[in-house]
Specification:
The relative contact order is 0.15. The chain folds into 2 domains: about 55 residues, no CATH class; about 180 residues, Inorganic Pyrophosphatase. The chain contains 5 helices and 12 strands. The protein has about 260 residues and is α+β, with helices and mostly antiparallel strands.
């Protein structure tokens, strides 16, 4: 990505974050209004599912029968997690059954097709990102060989004993470790977590608590999924780290997000 495109993407994300920053799904009136910095407040409406009665201005998260009429942005409108930095929300973009690479559109918040998977490799786990995180200067500081953060939300892999075949869902992941990946000189850490309350992996508290082959599969995937025969791989994994360092990375990504988007 060129420097100009990177600046434009980050500026667009910042504008989007300001419109969604209250977590209630406040929307900009239009894309043009977003660029001009003009927003229109949209009043939340509580809808009783049984009677279809609408009550403007009421809380939209007060139990059964209360629904949010507007979808929050998955990066800027969702919470980091129920107990960060240890238990996080993960917005799932890719499952182990996908042959396409999907990623969230940073402006609209909808999932889009990034590209087909080039090789025969499929992701070993659920894969997505942690809301309200950003890989910036603090994350780069934890990866000495990186020149900068990758400018994206923090990536997360979730181990689950049962197959989950849908993306665009939110799951809770307990952090157990991570991969310090450097991709084109950028810090692109991959947090490793287990599905909260999973009957097989839910008891893991450190990366050493899961079979080493699962971590090896993650390493192999991230080192080869962009690989073109005859060319040098653009990414490398500098280290595999445990829970203690992974929590530092999560905290750094949360702080980078606040520095970049919070007002």
């Amino acid at each position: 990505m060129s420097a100009w495109l990177r600046r434009e993407s980050r500026a667009e994300s910042a504008r989007c974050a300001r419109s969604y920053g209250n977590g209630q799904g406040a929307l900009f009136a239009s894309r043009a209004g977003m660029r001009a910095g003009r927003s229109r407040a949209i009043v939340p409406i509580e809808v009783d599912i049984l009677t279809k009665r609408q009550t403007p201005g009421r809380s939209t998260d007060r139990g059964r029968g209360a629904v949010n009429q507007f979808r929050p942005h998955p990066w800027h409108g969702l919470e980091v997690g129920p107990d960060p930095p240890e238990v996080l929300h993960a917005y799932i973009e890719i499952t182990p059954f996908d042959l396409m690479k999907y990623e969230v559109d940073k402006v609209s918040g909808y999932l889009r097709v990034d590209r087909p998977q080039r090789s025969s490799a499929q992701h070993p786990t659920l894969y997505g990102f942690v809301p309200r995180t950003y890989c910036g200067e603090r994350v780069r500081g934890l990866a000495p060989r990186a020149k900068r953060g990758d400018g994206d939300p923090l990536d997360i892999c979730i181990l689950s004993e049962r197959a989950i075949v849908r993306n665009e869902i939110i799951v809770r992941g307990r952090v157990i470790g991570g991969l310090q990946m450097i991709d084109g000189g950028e810090a692109d850490d991959k947090i490793i977590s287990v599905l909260e309350n999973d009957y097989v992996w839910g008891g893991a508290r450190n990366v050493s608590d899961v079979p080493a082959v699962l971590v090896e599969r993650l390493q192999h995937y991230f080192l080869t999924y962009k690989l073109v025969p005859g060319q040098r791989a653009p990414a490398r994994i500098a280290s595999v780290y445990g829970r203690v360092h992974a929590l530092k990375v999560v905290r750094a990504a949360m702080a980078d997000y606040d520095d970049t988007f919070a007002r």
